[in-house]
Specification:
The protein is an alpha/beta fold. Helix content is 30%, strand content 19%. It has a single domain, classed as Aldolase class I (TIM Barrel), CATH 3.20.20.70. The chain contains ten helices and twelve strands. A twelve-stranded mixed β-sheet has the order 7-8-9-6-5-4-3-2-1-10-11-12. The chain binds S-adenosylmethionine and iron/sulfur cluster. The site of S-adenosylmethionine has 21 residues, from strand 3 and strand 5.
Length: 330
C-alpha cells in the first residue's frame, strides 16, 4: 500500500469528515450570527462520502471521525456510519456532536458500528451553557444524550471549549464530573475560528495554565501522548476513575507529527486547518473520474500540506479567522 504522505514526511491516518455544515445550535465561538450554508446540491451524498472513505483507507487512513456542523442533523447519518464501519481498513468510526439528538440516536449509532462519541458541553451551568450555544431549554436534553450514549455502550468524552471570562471558572466542576462518572473531559483552547471575530489571544486559556489550575487541587499524572494528537491526557493519582485531556491547538499544536486530513461537507479537502488551502474533490466525484484519478489528486493535494503553525507561534503571527469552525468541523 502506498500511504498518503505530505511534503514533510507526515503520514495521514485520521480523517475528519464533515457530513453537513448545518447546525441547530449557534455557539458563539464557532458560528457567525448569520451563517451562510453550503447549497444543498453541493453537499456530498453518502455514496460520495463512502467512496472517499474507501479511497482514503486504500492509502492507510484508518480512523474516521464524523463531524459538522452538527452530524446528527444530517438525516440518515447512521446509514453512513454503518457503511464506513464496514469498510475494509477502517479501524474506528467516532463522532463529535452537540448531543441534542443523541438521546434518540445513541443506540442506533452504536448498532451501526460507532465506537465512541464526543459531546460538546461547555458549561455545567444551564443558563451559561444555553447562552454560549444560543438556544434555550436544551441543557438537560444534552445531559440525557450523554447518559443515553453511555447506556448504549459508546465510549463517551466531553469537549469543553474554554474561553477566558466565560467558563474558565468551571475547570474543577468538570474535573469532578469526570471523577464521578469516568467520562474523559477534554478542555480545548479557544481557536481563532469563530464567525464574529470574537477571538483574541487574551481570551485563550493555554493548556499550561489549565494544568496549573487543576494541579492546585488534584495530583495529576501525564499519560503518553498518542502519535499525532493535540491532546495531552492526565489521570488522577488518587483515583482510577476519570481523565482530563488538554487540547493545546494554539499553544502547542504538535504540527510535526500531525496525521489528520479533513474533508468539508462540500467535498473540499483541507490538509491543515490553519491554512486557507482547499482542494475540491467534488468536480472529480461528479465527472466520472476513476478511483485512481481521485487518489492521485488527493496525493498531490496532501503533498502540499502546510508545514504548520509551530514556527509562527514563536513570532506571534498565528493565522486567524481563516474559516469559521462550523464549516470545517474542528
Ligand atoms: N456540532 C458538533 C459539536 O459541537 O460537537 C461538531 C462540530 S464542532 C465544529 C467540533 C468541535 O469544535 C466542538 O467540540 C466544538 O465545541 C469545537 N469548536 C468550535 N469552535 C471552536 C473554536 N473556535 N475553538 C475551539 N474549538 C471549537
Ligand atoms: Fe454547532 Fe458544533 Fe458549531 Fe456549536 S460548535 S455551533 S454545535 S457546529
Amino acid at each position: 500500500m502506498r500511504e498518503l504522505v505530505d511534503g514533510y514526511g507526515r503520514v495521514a491516518k485520521k480523517l475528519r469528515l464533515s457530513v453537513t455544515d448545518r447546525c441547530n445550535f449557534r455557539c458563539n465561538f464557532c458560528m457567525p450570527k448569520e451563517p451562510v450554508w453550503i447549497p444543498r446540491s453541493d453537499v456530498l451524498s453518502f455514496e460520495e462520502h463512502a467512496r472517499l472513505v474507501r479511497i482514503l483507507t486504500s492509502m492507510g487512513v484508518s480512523r474516521i471521525r464524523l463531524t459538522g456542523g452538527e452530524p446528527l442533523v444530517r438525516r440518515g447519518v447512521e446509514k453512513l456510519v454503518k457503511i464506513i464501519a464496514t469498510t475494509p481498513g477502517v479501524e474506528e468510526v467516532t463522532m463529535t456532536t452537540n448531543g441534542f439528538h443523541l438521546q434518540s440516536f445513541a443506540k442506533t449509532l452504536a448498532e451501526a458500528g460507532l465506537s465512541s462519541v464526543t459531546v460538546s458541553l461547555h458549561s455545567l451551568k444551564p443558563e451559561r451553557f444555553e447562552e454560549i450555544i444560543g438556544v434555550n431549554g436544551v441543557f438537560h436534553r444534552v445531559l440525557e444524550g450523554i447518559s443515553a450514549a453511555k447506556d448504549a455502550g459508546l465510549r463517551v468524552k466531553i469537549n469543553v471549549v474554554v474561553v477566558r471570562g466565560c467558563n474558565d471558572d468551571e475547570l474543577y466542576d468538570f474535573a469532578e464530573l469526570s471523577r464521578r462518572t469516568g467520562i474523559t473531559v477534554k478542555f480545548i483552547e479557544f481557536m481563532p475560528f469563530d464567525g464574529e471575530r470574537l477571538w483574541n489571544l487574551e481570551r485563550v486559556v493555554k493548556a499550561t495554565e489549565m494544568l496549573d489550575i487543576l494541579s492546585k487541587r488534584y495530583r495529576l499524572y501525564p499519560k503518553a501522548r498518542e502519535h499525532g494528537s493535540t491532546t495531552r491526557y492526565y489521570g488522577f493519582r488518587d483515583s482510577s476513575v476519570g481523565e482530563i485531556g488538554l487540547v493545546s491547538s494554539i499553544s502547542e499544536p504538535f504540527c510535526f507529527d500531525c496525521d489528520r486530513v479533513r474533508i468539508k461537507a462540500d467535498g473540499k479537502l483541507v490538509p491543515c486547518m490553519f491554512s486557507r488551502d482547499e482542494y475540491d474533490l467534488k468536480p472529480l466525484l461528479r465527472s466520472g473520474a476513476t478511483d485512481e484519478e481521485i487518489r492521485e489528486f488527493i496525493r498531490w493535494a496532501f503533498s502540499r500540506k502546510f508545514r504548520g503553525v509551530e514556527a509562527m507561534l514563536k513570532t506571534g503571527e498565528l493565522p486567524q479567522h481563516i474559516r469559521p469552525m462550523y464549516t470545517l468541523g474542528g
